[in-house]
C-alpha cells in the first residue's frame, strides 16, 4: 500500500469487523482528521471456489462484511467482474434474490487479473488509501500472468490494506503454490484460510493478539502442522505455468 496520505487504523478495523462477523462497528482512526474506513469486497464465485464454499456462505459473509463500513463496495467475479453493491444495500435484506434478478453468473473460470483490470478501468474510485480490500478467492487463476501482476500491484499500491481469504488455506498443509496465489501473496497484508464464519473468528483472534503487521495468517493457524505442505492441485503447475484448477471451472 502507498505510504502517503492519511490512513484509518486498518488493523483494528479488520479485527473488529471480523470478530463481529462484519456487523457495523465504531471505526477507529489513527488521527482525529482522518476519514473512516471504506471496504471493497472482491468475491470469487468460480467453479473451484463453489466446490469448497457454498453460495449461501459466500453471500452471508459478503453481506456481513459489507456492513463493516458505511461505505462498502461489493463485486463478484469469475471470468468477469460484476458490481453487486446495490444487492447488499437492499432494504429487504435479501441479497440472493437481488442477485438472481441481476442475472449474476456463478461457476465459471477464474480470471483474477481481468477482474482487477475491470475494477481499475471502470470502478477506480472503489479503492483508495482509506479502503481495506477483502478478496475471497482460491487463487487458481487461469488468465494472463502479466495482467494479474499489474492488477495486484495496482491494488496494493492504492489500498490501505489487502486481506485475502482463501478456502484452500484451511488445509493444515496449504502452501500458495498456484501461479495466481504465488503472484498475489507478496502484495497481500494477510492471507487467512476461509471456509465459513468460524474462520473469520479465528482471523480476528490472530489480529487481536498480533496485529496486521505481526505473525498472522494461514501459517500461524493453530490447525496447521509445521513442515507439512500440500501437493500441487491436479494439473496445477508452479512458476510461470498455467493453472488448470480442474479445467475451465477454476
Automatic annotation (TrEMBL):
Residues 213-233 have a biased composition (Basic and acidic residues). It comes from the Archaea. Residues 213-250 are annotated as: Disordered. Pfam families: VWA_CoxE. InterPro entries: Uncharacterised_CoxE, vWFA_dom_sf. PANTHER family: BLL5662 PROTEIN (PTHR39338:SF6), BLL5662 PROTEIN-RELATED (PTHR39338). This is VWA domain-containing protein.
